[in-house]
Amino acid sequence: MPVMTLSHRGPDFVDLMDRVVAKLRQALAIPSTHEVLILQGGGMGQFAAVPMNLTKPGDEVAMLITGSWGNTAAKEAQLMGLTVQRAADEAASGYTTVPELGSYAVDPGAKYLYYVPNETIGGVEFRDQPTAPVPLVADASSQILSQPMDVSAHGLVFAGTQKNLGVAGAVVVIVDKALLGHARADCPSILDYTKMARASSLLNTPTTFAVYVLGLVLDWVQAAGGVEAMAQQSRVKAGLVYDLIDATSFYSNPVSFNARSTKNIPFTLADPSLDARFLEQSEQAGLAFLAGHRTVGGMRASIYNSMPLAGVEALVDFMVDFERRHG
Ligand SMILES: *Cc1c(COP(=O)(O)O)cnc(C)c1O
Question: What is the mean pLDDT of residues 157-181?
Answer without folding.
Answer: 97
